[in-house]
Design goal:
alpha+beta; Beta Polymerase, domain 2; 3 domains; seven-stranded mixed beta sheet; two-stranded antiparallel ribbon; 23 helices; 13 strands; 51% helix; nucleotide-binding; HD/PDEase_dom
Amino acid sequence: MPDSVPSPAAPDQPHPALLLHAALESLPAQHPEIIELGELFQDAGHELALVGGPVRDALLKRPVHDLDFATSARPEQTIDLLAQWGDAHWDIGREFGTIGAQRHARGGRQAITVEVTTYRSDQYDPTSRKPQVQFGDQLDGDLSRRDFTVNSMALRVPDLTFVDPFGGLKDLAAQVLRTPVAPEQSFADDPLRMMRAARFVSQLGFAIEGSTRAAMTDMAGRISIVSAERVHDEFVKLLLGTHVREGLRALVDSTLADHILPELPALRLEIDEHHHHKDVYEHTLTVVDQAIALETDLAGAVPRPDLVLRLAALLHDIGKPPTRKFEAGGGVSFHHHELVGARMTRKRLQAMRFDKDTIKQVSRLVELHLRFHGYGSGEWTDSAVRRYVTDAGPLLERLHRLTRADCTTRNRRRAAALSASYDHLERRIAQIAAKEELAAIRPDLDGEQIMEILGIAPGPEVGAAYKFLLNVRMDEGPLGVDEATARLRAWWDTRGA
């Protein structure tokens, strides 16, 4: 994780004062409800402030969708006020002081959802990240319990007074992540904040300030008290960010990855003295970058961001460390690492609480990611091409991109040859697909026809016959009903004999 020294403003950001001026102009114009709600709470004798992410995003000139507020009002008072303002409200977060409300679309404007939380000054049990909720009376105290200074800024409404007790605006301009209180205290209170640091590195492209980074490393083991579901959520947001490589480095360099994804730091294999194999860790980060670059827009085959492709790129080589073998003569091999890696992928993603469909798709891509390398200069038969497409199934477009991303050689001639070879394979797939229903290959006879021709009832024999015809279809292409029937009868006679 690179060190970061705060500066007045990062090169690609204007001066903090200009950021603030632009935000103060844009927020009320985009969301006039901010002022309206502020006046409603003020008339009732309560403070209200826009806090956290919306303020940060407005300062960064990013779209502001979620409106989160903090207030001096207690939850029951907030409910009464939001009932006057919105068309619906809910108190599912009332225990934590949070009340939500929605106003339906009107006057050409979209529907809007807000959450208002009573000022808090929580106490934490060192053995748990769940706070003992205590309501507070001061906005500054509420802001001190937030994760980073860039999320500890507020905008009082309706007068639009900017509140920044911890220097968040300066850190935002310098693109630095720093805790508002001592990082040791912040991470002891809520260890998930360490994961959020890596996530914001990925999402915002920010760097982690030195003492904050050091505390993450010292306290990484505390992530174990956080539920796998909460870690999963932060990890997914990291993977879907725009600076994923840097976010992953933050996980590894802080040793957080040792606890949540140990297969990633394990890729930092010691390079043998003869350099017969590349740095698998750096190779993996490059593959992730290249896979992301091959994603397409929303109308494309693999729309960006694609979680399955990114996970497959990240995990495609995790089977290498346990399969590494030093051969006679100084060579290094990783035989069957794709099969071992697929099993490891399933186990890790299950532990990280990914859903069954995602686990199935990612592990299948890991298992198939080396299949193309048997293609050579085009020696595959049409049958082999059909099997490649059939085995990939709906993952074919992702497999195309993963395979291309896996080429990280610096040898331009070799890289060009691999690219040309894969171009050739894709053309062959397209040519065969133009003649056949390649994406859904089936035998020329279905189960009902098989039973009628052979005069048999449903059972294992039908499945065996179907598999036989499918293999013939793969090898030879479409046969037609008559030829398939003749082949089936001949196979059945042989089987009976």
